[in-house]
């Protein structure tokens, strides 16, 4: 039952059911599902529930304890109490619920399918609106008086073009490695959906998203047995796609490495922004300004209307050097879990589990790239990845132990 409630929470969280159906929003459906999931785990004491946490879980609890204990020392404790802790609670549960409810290979496959389906819907919905109504959702200044339209999330999913690009690359990271596991009809749907997802990514005009796609593609190619074929196909697809872009879109992506095209000034602005972000960090370097206060700190101290778009700067701004050390320790721990699990899964010869592990690994590449380009302390990604790394490690150990028992018999 807890697993079912958790899947409902995942669906509600990512599809923003509270916004789509105001009645659900008024009753705080996300909070209700969190309570129901927790109650099912604790009160019903499901036999297949996993209550023991590994080291990464202990570190994460330590980080949460630090955030609460440091409230008297941060600059804006009121903002933490009113907004920061609530938002953080909504994302940190992804770690604990994943560890406690995803307890078998079928459940892992079901969970990933639901997760990827939600992310694909978030990309395809604004694409549908774009095709049918001309919807874009955002635009950006390119210089010389030129503005370029950029695809953003749908009106029910308020994410900017960079956020939509992140979601699109997430779908690619999971969908391509997992397509071989799908039955015939769904496999065709999966492979045919990929071009639409990539096209949506191109329409976002997100340079960070494009770099993320390159990283994910590299991870997929390097772990594939058909490296030469995939590399050639990726190269041809990239060349054809670029040649069919408009002039502004071409210059947008060329500005990643060239400073003689329109859009280069905004790329330089990211670098200048890091300097300003660090100045804000030094205003309260030890304990930070408070969880969820990056935007508030940048506005009041750095004279910026944006939160930090760099995970390192965001963490330092919000929870200070002490919290940063704990958070890095958590990330190192979950990456270590994944690397261990992946090596063990290769040895087991379990292809289904290996495909899922490859998908999670491709997503890890995206997460590491987006450390540079996006915030993430109060976003779900690192906590969900942490939970998946523990699940993969546990399942890999189960397979190894099963093989050993079989060998002794």
In short:
The protein has 409 residues and is mainly α. 73% of the residues lie in helices and 3% in strands. The mean pLDDT is 87.
Strand order, biggest sheet?
1-2
Give me the count of strands.
Answer: 2
Query: What is the overall silhouette?
Result: globular
State the secondary-structure class.
mainly alpha
Alpha-carbon distance between the two ends: 36 Å
Order of helices and strands: HHHHHHHEEHHHHHHHHHH
Radius of gyration: 22 Å
What summary fits the major beta sheet?
2 strands, antiparallel
Low-confidence blocks of residues:
none
Oligomer: single chain
Q: What percentage of residues falls in helices of 4 or more residues? A: over 70%
> Would you tell me the overall average pLDDT?
87
- Relative strand content: under 5%
- Work out the helix count: 17
């Amino acid at each position: 039952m807890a697993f079912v409630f958790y899947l409902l929470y995942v669906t509600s969280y990512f599809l923003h059911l509270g916004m789509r159906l105001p009645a659900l929003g008024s009753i705080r459906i996300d909070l209700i599902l969190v309570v129901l999931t927790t109650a099912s785990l604790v009160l019903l004491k499901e036999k297949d529930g996993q209550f023991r946490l590994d080291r990464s879980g202990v570190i994460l609890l330590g980080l949460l304890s630090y955030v609460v204990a440091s409230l008297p020392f941060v600059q804006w404790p009121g903002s933490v109490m009113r907004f920061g802790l609530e938002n953080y609670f909504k994302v940190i549960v992804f770690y604990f619920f994943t560890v406690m409810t995803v307890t078998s290979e079928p459940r892992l496959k079901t969970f990933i399918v639901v997760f990827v389906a939600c992310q694909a819907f978030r990309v395809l919905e604004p694409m549908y609106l774009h095709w049918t109504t001309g919807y874009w959702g955002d635009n950006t200044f390119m210089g010389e008086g030129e503005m370029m339209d950029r695809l953003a999330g749908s009106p029910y999913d308020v994410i900017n073009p960079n956020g939509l690009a992140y979601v699109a690359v997430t779908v690619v990271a999971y969908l391509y490695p997992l397509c071989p596991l799908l039955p015939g009809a769904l496999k065709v749907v999966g492979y045919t959906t990929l071009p639409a997802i990539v096209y949506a990514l191109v329409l976002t005009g997100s340079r960070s998203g494009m770099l993320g796609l390159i990283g994910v593609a590299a991870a997929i190619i390097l772990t594939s047995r058909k490296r030469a074929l995939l590399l050639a196909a990726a190269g041809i697809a990239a060349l054809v796609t670029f040649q069919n872009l408009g002039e502004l879109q071409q210059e947008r992506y060329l500005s990643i490495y060239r400073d003689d095209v329109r859009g280069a000034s905004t790329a330089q602005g990211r670098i200048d922004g890091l300097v300003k972000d660090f100045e804000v960090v030094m205003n309260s370097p030890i304990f930070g300004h408070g969880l969820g206060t990056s935007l508030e700190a940048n506005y009041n101290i750095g004279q910026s209307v944006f939160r930090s778009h760099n995970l390192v700067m965001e963490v330092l701004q919000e929870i200070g050097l002490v919290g940063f050390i704990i958070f890095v320790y958590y990330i190192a721990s979950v990456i270590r879990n994944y690397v261990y699990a992946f090596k063990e899964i290769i040895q087991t010869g379990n292809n289904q589990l290996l495909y899922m592990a490859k998908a999670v690994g491709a997503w890890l590449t995206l997460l590491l790239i987006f450390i540079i380009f996006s915030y993430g302390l109060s976003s779900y990604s690192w906590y969900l990845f942490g939970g998946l790394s523990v699940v993969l490690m546990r399942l890999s150990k189960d397979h190894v132990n099963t093989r050993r028992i079989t060998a002794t018999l």
